[in-house]
Structures are given as C-alpha cells and as structure tokens.
C-alpha cells in the first residue's frame, strides 16, 4: 500500500482521485462494503475476519445462512464493524444479478469484491456427475466473471476498488482426478492476470490468490479422506486457512497481481509450470487418490460452496 489507511485525502476533487489511485485497498467508509463469497467457512471466513480487523464493513455471501449469521455476530462483537448477510446460490445467474440492487437498497457501495466461493469434484471424467460438473463451472468460473462484470464498472467510475479472486496452485498444471476443478482455477488465474493489466492505473486493483492445500474440510466434502489428502501432498505444503487469508489480504493491500501462500507452494507452482507436461501429468494421475481403482463414484457438489484446496 502506497498510502496508509486513515490518512485524509488532500483537498480538491483532482487530489481525491489521485489519492484513490494510490490506494490498493480502499480506506473503509461508513457506506462501503467488502463482498466475500464462500464466507461460511474456511478461507472465506478467515478473509472476512482479516478485513473486519482492518475496519471494513462486510457483506457475507454463501448458501448456509446460519453459518453466515454466526460469523456476522462474531465479527460485529470483535471488531464493531457493520456486517450484512446474504444467503444466495451463486450457481444461479438471477441470484447473483440481484446483489447490486439489494446492496444499493441498503445504501451500500461495493469497494472490495472477494470471489472466493468454489468447490471441487473428484474422480475420472468418465464417472462424472453431470449436474455436479456444471455446478462447478457455474460457481468457480461463471460467478467470478459475472460478479466482476456487475461490480467493477462502479469501482472504475469512483476510481477506487479492489478485487481478489481465489484460484489455486492447481491452476499451474492439468490435474487428473480433478480435471474440471484444475481447469476452472487455470481460468481464474488467466482471467485475473488479464483483468489486472486492463485496470492498471485506474484505481482498481486485481489480485489472484493461489493457495496450495489448506485444512478447510474442502477435500472431505468432495469425498477424499484426510489420510488420502495427506498422502497426495507433502505436509510442508499445507498452510492454515488463517495464514492463507492473511497473505491474501496483505497482497490485496499491496496491489500484487498473484499471491501463493507458503514457500513450498511457490516452489511447487514454479516447477509445475516449467516441468514437461508429458512427464508431470502422468505422474500426477498415478498419485491422485481419486483415480485409485478401489474408489467408488465421486459425490456431487457439497451443500455449500467455499474456496480453498490445492
């Protein structure tokens, strides 16, 4: 961040715009809000806590309203920030499309957008559940594009805003056993990099978060046991959700384009990107527990969507 939060902008409209352009993470105001999707648990909930500690009002979006209300009560008590709760199905275009008018009716302006909702399916494509695969694409890809389309134009008009999209280290190579998930995160990474370049100098920053394996219950919801998850990836690569969230918000505040929490994950992502795919991808297919012959048909999508895996 080039200008510290809380510093008053110099007088005059032009000075105010210059101040805004220098900010990667907008200073919170009474009528501004940070949308966090997939906020009911895991990385999303931890990012909401990080933003609340920085004084940002929040709009928490996910399917499980009870969990959102519990988190909202916690944040309000701990940080005295305003917290809105919206139970919404992000696979549904109409549900997403209602968000701008709903927030405007509450007198709120979106300064920060965190697209964190997402889930994975497991197993070979030949065994895929059609409904689950389509729901994955709608949540992991379509919702990211749609919410950016809905809220970035307003940020540009105001010359202030920050967007964080959650991808994964799975974005750096194909992922047999989670083919749709890996491809969806590769899309998010490519989209975020392109969007960041388009918006450079506008006062609106875009950061893409690429976490490695995170203990969020994500893999369990997709049908992978803790033992299988631990065997598939070295322990040194696992990063707590709170550490991932802290790194994400710090990167957003600094205006960084891509952040990969954890030194081992940064090395792994670099090697995966550079390694010959003709060698790497078959090895990954042999190691992925979802492709083991003794596994049954993978389950459909979890009861809610929350980001964070590898």
Verbal overview:
With 310 residues, the chain is of the alpha/beta class. It has one domain (13-291): NAD(P)-binding Rossmann-like Domain (Rossmann fold), CATH 3.40.50. Helix content is 47%, strand content 12%. It is built from twelve helices and seven strands. A seven-stranded parallel sheet has the order 3-2-1-4-5-6-7, sandwiched between helices. Helix 6 (130-158) links the parallel strand 4 (109-115) and strand 5 (161-166). Helix 6 runs parallel beside helix 7. It is globular. The two termini are 28 Å apart. Mean pLDDT is 85; it is low at 1-22, 296-300 and 302-310.
Biggest sheet, open or closed, and with what strands and sense?
7 strands, parallel
Q: How many strand elements?
A: 7
Q: Classify the beta-strand content into a percent band.
A: 5-15%
How many helices does DSSP assign? 12
Quick take:
The protein is of the alpha/beta class and 310 residues long. Helices cover 47% and strands 12% of the residues. The chain starts with 12 loop residues before the first helix and ends in a 23-residue tail after the last helix.
